[in-house]
Structure formats: structure tokens, C-alpha cells
Design a protein that fits this description.
By secondary structure, this protein is an alpha/beta fold. The protein folds into three domains: 105 residues, 2-Layer Sandwich (Nucleotidyltransferase, domain 5), CATH 3.30.420; 64 residues, Methane Monooxygenase Hydroxylase, Chain G, domain 1, CATH 1.20.58; 114 residues, no CATH class. It is built from 13 helices and seven strands. The strands form two sheets. Strands 3-2-1-4-5 form a five-stranded mixed sheet. Strand 2 and strand 3 form a beta hairpin. The N and C termini lie far apart (92 Å).
Length: 356
């Protein structure tokens, strides 16, 4: 067999010409990489995300994708400086953890500059950090995780509560703290026999009782001072099973109630069962997440609702006859109670049995 010859009109390839083609291909590849890198830089510079880790004394901010990190003092002056620095970058989203109150001033300062802010449950951030392999934990690293969470997950932006809502939330939180202290002192009293210690605990219990009464009066005054709150409170308490405590908690901790669907309301309060299935295996559904304060109050309210609300009483008996566990029944009644409350506020009409 003779040597292969190229068709007429085509040049013969030699070792030198093959090397020339390899060099040209490499140059073309590098050129394409530069084009892709340039286009990616153009696309990513249009958005930036900020994560802010809040502690008692410091505020750590991480700007992504630049990677810039800044630390500010958690003081009125430091919060102003932080909000100015964040606003200067016009971020797509700012994310903070809900840390029990320390973040409120920061959220207010950033929101007042018209920037999109999202408060996220700390458990979601911890789960996200583990998922991406970030096991180390410092304030600076936490700010970086928050910024990456903002970019990848894009949690929904929640508007800053108005002044009336913030006031009601603060009063309700203080009342809860006082009740918690009274419970602890009552538990201590049950195990004490020495008379001087008992007198000390009883003195504190009387003082806490007076403060709780004052907190109740302040809550009543706050609701009466706002016609909208008063109307909503009356509508909610028209539902058998919802008393002042549950009503105030719903007003303060779920101001969205009345504008949500049944599914959204249940998920927001954390009383929506979550499926745990994989392939042919079907696990038990359980509740998770949501606003724990609301869920706890609804759980307590379900006891009164089962006794005082004929419709929910029949609903609970039907579940019991079906063999459901007591805890499952209480959660189902709590979810039903929340759905009724959402419908009452949506329709702006007192409860009727047909709403159940």
C-alpha cells in the first residue's frame, strides 16, 4: 500500500505544520478563556451581597463577591457607619441572623436607607454552613457564610415592622421574660424548706406578679391606642380557644396574618407537617422551623380550643378515633386554629362555625 496523498488542491501536512496547528489551537483556547473570564466578570459585578454578623459589641460585615470584610463597633455611631458603608455598595441583598434583639437596630438603620434586608433563622445558616463544608466559626467567617447564603439562596426580603408592631413585640417579649422568671422562682420554692429562703423567693414572686400585671396593662393600652390592633384583637378573640395571650402573640409575631394562604400561614408558624420520604420508604411527617413563639402559644391555645370550641372538639375526636397520637392531635388542632384566625382577619368578620 502506497503513502496516503491529500486530495488535489489540499496542502500536504508535515510535522512542522501539525505543530503550527497545535500552537494556533492553544492560542485560540487561551483567547476563548479570556473572553469567558471577561464576560463572567461583567455578569458578576452587577450584583453584590452583604452578610452582617451581629454580636453584643461588634458588627462584622462581609461583601461578596469582592471578599471585603469590615468590622464596626455595635454602638449608635458604629451602626450609622455600617449602614453608610453598606449603602455605598448598593447591595442586591443584605442578610442577618435573628439573634434575639441585638440585630434590630442594625436592621432598622439599613432598612431606612431603602436597602433590601432579610432576617434568617440561625438554624438555616448553620445547616447551610455545614452543607458547604464551613466548620470553623468566628464572627468574620460567619459574616462570610451569611453573604454566601444571600447570594446562593436569595431569602425573601421582609419589610421592617411599623412602630406599633415593634412596640407590641417589645411589650410581649418583656411579659414572656417576666413569666419565665416567675416560673423559675416557683420551681425553686417547691424544693425549699428553709424559712429565710422561702421568704426571699416569695418576695420576688410578689414583685414579679406586679410587673406581669403592669405588662398586661401596657399591652391592653397599646392595643386600645391603635384602632386597627383593637379591631384585630376583637376579631381574634371571637374565636373560641383564642384568649388575650394567643391574640397578642399573633398580632405581634405574625403581622402578616390575614394576607396569607392556609399553607403559608401554617408554614410560617411551623405547624405544617413536613414529608420525610425516600424511594419506597415513607417516614413519619413532623413539624419543623417556623416562629417558635407563635407555635408555642398555639400549642397552648389548642387545649382550650378543644374544650371550648365545639367544631374543633369534634375535629379532635375524629382524629382520636382514627388512632392519632395525642401530640399529633394537638398540633392538628393548633394548625386548624391558626387557619381559622387567618380567615377571620382576612374576611374582617367575627368567627362563625362555618369558617372552621
Amino acid at each position: 500500500m502506497g503513502e496516503w496523498e491529500p486530495p488535489p488542491g489540499r496542502p500536504r501536512l508535515t510535522p512542522n505544520s501539525c505543530q503550527t496547528l497545535e500552537v494556533a489551537s492553544a492560542r485560540l483556547g487561551r483567547s476563548s478563556d479570556r473572553v469567558r473570564n471577561r464576560s463572567s466578570r461583567v455578569s458578576t459585578t452587577t450584583e453584590c451581597f452583604v452578610g452582617i454578623d451581629v454580636s453584643k459589641t461588634t458588627l462584622d460585615a462581609h461583601l461578596r463577591p469582592e471578599g471585603t470584610v469590615r468590622r464596626f463597633d455595635n454602638t449608635p455611631e458604629g451602626i450609622v457607619a455600617l449602614s453608610e458603608w453598606v449603602a455605598s455598595h448598593a447591595p442586591t441583598l443584605v442578610v442577618l441572623e435573628a439573634t434575639g434583639g441585638y440585630e434590630n437596630a442594625v436592621v432598622a438603620a439599613v432598612s431606612l436607607r431603602g436597602l433590601p434586608v432579610s432576617l434568617v433563622n440561625p438554624k438555616r445558616i448553620r445547616d447551610f454552613a455545614r452543607a458547604i463544608g464551613r466548620l470553623a466559626k468566628t464572627d468574620t467567617l460567619d459574616a462570610g457564610v451569611l453573604a454566601e447564603f444571600a447570594e446562593r439562596v436569595r431569602p425573601p426580603v421582609r419589610p421592617l415592622p411599623d412602630a406599633d408592631t415593634q412596640k407590641l413585640q417589645a411589650l410581649l417579649a418583656r411579659r414572656g421574660q417576666l413569666i419565665g422568671m416567675r416560673t423559675m422562682e416557683s420551681n425553686r420554692l417547691a424544693g425549699v424548706t428553709e424559712r429565710p429562703i422561702r421568704r426571699s423567693i416569695e418576695t420576688i414572686l410578689r414583685a414579679l406578679g406586679k410587673e406581669i400585671d403592669r405588662a398586661d396593662r401596657d399591652l391592653d393600652a397599646a392595643i386600645r391606642s391603635c384602632p386597627v390592633w383593637q379591631m384585630k384583637d376583637e376579631l381574634l378573640q371571637s374565636i373560641p380557644g383564642i384568649g388575650p395571650g394567643v391574640s397578642r402573640t399573633l398580632l405581634a409575631e405574625m403581622p402578616e396574618l390575614g394576607t396569607l394562604s392556609r399553607e403559608q400561614a401554617a408554614a410560617l408558624a411551623g405547624v405544617a407537617p413536613v414529608n420525610r420520604d425516600s424511594g419506597s420508604w415513607s417516614g413519619r411527617r413532623s413539624i419543623t422551623g417556623g416562629r417558635s413563639v407563635v407555635r408555642s402559644m398555639l400549642y397552648l391555645g389548642s387545649l382550650g380550643a378543644r374544650q371550648g370550641n365545639a367544631v374543633l372538639g369534634v375535629f379532635a375526636e375524629r382524629l382520636q378515633a382514627a388512632g392519632k397520637a395525642p401530640k399529633v392531635i394537638r398540633i392538628a388542632v393548633a394548625r386548624k386554629l391558626l387557619i381559622i384566625a387567618n380567615a377571620v382577619l382576612r374576611d374582617k368578620r367575627p368567627w362563625q362555625p362555618k369558617m372552621s
